[in-house]
Amino acid sequence: MTTNIFSPDTTRELIVRINKLTPETRPQWGKMNASQMLAHLCVMYEMVYEDKHKRPNAFMRFLITLVAKDTVVGNKPYPRNARTAPAFVITDQRDFEREKGRLTDYIIRTEKNGEAFFEGRESHSFGKLTLPEWNNYFYKHLNHHLTQFAV
């Protein structure tokens, strides 16, 4: 992946795309509405910045790493309608502007924290990740869902 989630240009590009969304924007596939999708994307940042989600035990981290790590942090794009981890499932209604603001703040915070903050940092579910893995984790997920909503 050549896009750098830690660069100001990528931050601007993502925020421009997010700002094209409205509460009425419909997905090209999947079940989430725009507000739920924004909340869904915030979960990956909550797992980095907040102590909000229970960490899997060592055995579960091993299994998750074995089964899902390459899909989540590798270079290959996500397939449409792929299964998601339970923590990422958003079924209740969310406030669009609140979720949009939270996501934008997380993206800016990640850029400002920069590469040094993430290199070798422990992830919630996969153990330590390299900088390219963190980059893929963030950008690939964001791009997948923004594309889902045609922005």
How does this structure look, described?
With 151 residues, this protein is mostly helical. Helix content is 56%, strand content 3%. Strands 1-2 form a two-stranded antiparallel sheet. Strand 1 and strand 2 form a beta hairpin. Helix 1 packs antiparallel against helix 4. The longest helix has 23 residues. It is globular and about 40 Å long. The two termini are 19 Å apart.
Shape: globular
Largest sheet: 2 strands, antiparallel
Query: What is the straight-line distance between the termini?
Result: 19 Å
Overall structural class, as computed from helix and strand content, comes to mainly alpha
Secondary structure: number of strands: 2
The average pLDDT is 91
Helix fraction, binned, reads 55-70%
- Main sheet: which strands, in order across? 1-2
Pattern of helices and strands: HHHHEEH
Query: What Rg is obtained from the alpha carbons, in whole angstroms?
Result: 15 Å
Percent range for β-strand residues: under 5%
Task: Report the total helices.
Answer: 5
- Unreliable residue stretches: none
Key features of this structure:
about 5% strand; 5 helices; about 150 residues; two-stranded antiparallel sheet; mainly alpha
Chain-wise SSE layout:
Blueprint lengths: L7 H12 L14 H16 L8 H16 L22 H23 L3 E2 L3 E2 L2 H18 L3
Antiparallel strand pairs: 1-2
Helix pairs in contact: 1-4, 2-4, 2-5
Short description:
This protein is mostly helical and 151 residues long. The protein contains 5 helices and 2 strands, in the order ααααββα. The mean pLDDT is 91.
